[in-house]
C-alpha cells in the first residue's frame, strides 16, 4: 500500500507546505542548496540518496518554484533556490535550532555567524554583536563545538560544507566532461 501524497486538510497552511517539503529528503536537499550545493551529482554524493528519489524530489521542487533548473557554463545543470525557496530559510533555521536544543548534548553542531562581524546569530536570526537581522547571503555557517567529524576521508562536497562558508555561495567541484554529461 502506498501512502497518499496529499494531506486532507485544505484549510491548513502547514499541511499545504508539507505537500511541498514534507517528503523524506526534501528539506535536506533544500538545506544543501543553502550550503551552496547546485549539481545533481553533488546532492547525490552529499546525501547518499538514491538517484531516482533525488530526481523525483528535484522535479517537485522545480515544479513548485522552490528551485530553478538551468544549464551552467560547463555544460551541466544547476539547481538553485529561488526567492520562494530562500523564503524557507526561517523554517530550516528554526528546525535546526530545535535539533540543537534537544539533540546536541555536546554543544552546537552548526554555528551560524554574521559574516561581516563574526557575531553569532540568535534563534531569531539576529546578530548578537550588531543586532542586525542578517540576510541569508551574509550568514556564515561553520562547525560548532558539538560538531563531530567522521574521521574518514570526506568527499569534496562534504569537506566544503564542513568548512566555514557563506550560505548560498556555490560549492566548486571539478568534473570531467563525461561526468558533466552524465549528471546533467
Ligand atoms: Zn553583526
From TrEMBL:
Keyword field contains Transcription: yes
Superkingdom to which the source organism belongs: Bacteria
Domain HTH hxlR-type: 12-107
Pfam families (alphabetical): HxlR (PF01638)
Xref: InterPro entries: HTH_HxlR, WH-like_DNA-bd_sf, WH_DNA-bd_sf
Keywords per UniProt: DNA-binding, Transcription, Transcription regulation
GO molecular function annotations of the record: DNA binding
Protein name stated in the entry: Transcriptional regulator, HxlR family
Species, as recorded: Actinacidiphila glaucinigra
Classification of source organism: Bacteria, Bacillati, Actinomycetota, Actinomycetes, Kitasatosporales
Amino acid at each position: 500500500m502506498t501512502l497518499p501524497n496529499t494531506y486532507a486538510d485544505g484549510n491548513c497552511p502547514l499541511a499545504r507546505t508539507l505537500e511541498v517539503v514534507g517528503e523524506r529528503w526534501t528539506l535536506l536537499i533544500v538545506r544543501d542548496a543553502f550550503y551552496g550545493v547546485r549539481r545533481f551529482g553533488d546532492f547525490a554524493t552529499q546525501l547518499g540518496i538514491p538517484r531516482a528519489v533525488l530526481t523525483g524530489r528535484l522535479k517537485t521542487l522545480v515544479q513548485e518554484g522552490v528551485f530553478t533548473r538551468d544549464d551552467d557554463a560547463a555544460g551541466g545543470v544547476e539547481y538553485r533556490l529561488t526567492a520562494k525557496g530562500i523564503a524557507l530559510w526561517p523554517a530550516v533555521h528554526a528546525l535546526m535550532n530545535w535539533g540543537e536544543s534537544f539533540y546536541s548534548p555536546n554543544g552546537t553542531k552548526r554555528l551560524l555567524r554574521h559574516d561581516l562581524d563574526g557575531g553569532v546569530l540568535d534563534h531569531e536570526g539576529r546578530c548578537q554583536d550588531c543586532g542586525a537581522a542578517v540576510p541569508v547571503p551574509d550568514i556564515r555557517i561553520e562547525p560548532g563545538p558539538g560538531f563531530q567529524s567522521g574521521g574518514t576521508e570526506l568527499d569534496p562536497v562534504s569537506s566544503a560544507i564542513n568548512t566555514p562558508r557563506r550560505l548560498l555561495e556555490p560549492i566548486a567541484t571539478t568534473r570531467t566532461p563525461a561526468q558533466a554529461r552524465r549528471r546533467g
